[in-house]
Amino acid sequence: MSGGIDSSVAAALLVEQGWDVIGFTLHMFKEGSRCCSLEDVQRARRVCEHLGIRHYTLNVVEDFEREVIRPFADAYAAGRTPNPCIFCNRHFKFGELVNRARALGCSHVATGHYVRIEHGVDGARLRRGRDPGKDQSYFLHRLTQDQLQTCVFPLGELLKADVRRIAAEKQIPTTGMRETADLCFITDAGPAPLIERYHPEVRRAGPIVDGAGRTLGAHEGLHHFTIGQREGLRIAAPHRLYVSELRAESNTVVVGRREEIMRDACIVSDVFWQLGRPPAAGTSMTVRIRYQHPGVGAELEFADKDRLVLRFAQPQFAVTPGQAAVFYDGDVVLGGAWIESA
Fold first, then answer.
1. In terms of residue numbers, what domain contains 283?
2. Is the pTM of this model over 0.70?
3. DSSP single-letter state for residue 54
4. Set 36, 88, 106, 151: catalytic member
């Protein structure tokens, strides 16, 4: 329970359905968090009191800093744009939390994620949530079969409007509740201050160049940019320019027109299949290369024993190293991989 409306309504629905419910909040970050600070713990506790259920807090601040926040800063300093939520979900929300719940004799773990789950003879399959604007299957694609077998997602068939209505009907105390952000440990100041805390050396000037190597401007640190970015370049040009590449070794930002940063393929690594094996030959596959990406048809082929080439049916904008490429068959999650390079 994050102290937000989604997990609070999920808990209320489970109580209504007759489950014996315990509320758990992971305290993962000390200050400025959007879902796992001490303030969020207090909000979740108030909801549990309202629902008449027990509430526990699991302090994982040190582990979270070591295993999520520091690697996030390291990746940004190296010119990548990481997605720490995927790792957090697998190793904390459905890792540490599942272990603690089992120690208390719990049979299942539920969250307020907008996803669905389907159990079949070949295992549990994760499916997109019914609300296309809230679907969070992208972030949960690396959950193992052991984790999925015990998951319950009460909001999977609901729309966000339904959740707000239920919260009002059940008079859930929503004062101070916020929408849970995907990067819970990033404040309104953005990621730069946190990255500079771990890597002060990133605060150094460097050139902004075009694809031909011509200098167009200057920047104050690669960590202020990500692939596809248009705002904040501070370059006078007769046409729109976008970030196309971040070269950490030379501290250089490369920009180009939109058509110059369209890519028809990328290299991916660490491929994970939810059923433990690739889909059958001929399975239609679409891929999402970031959370809000609509998806595109794609094919996989081996580059070497550790990496695959992902070929898109149509060129894609802003293929970003560090992000996940998540594979689907319709609304069923097949698995995913990490984007290494375009």
1. 262-341
2. yes
3. E
4. 88
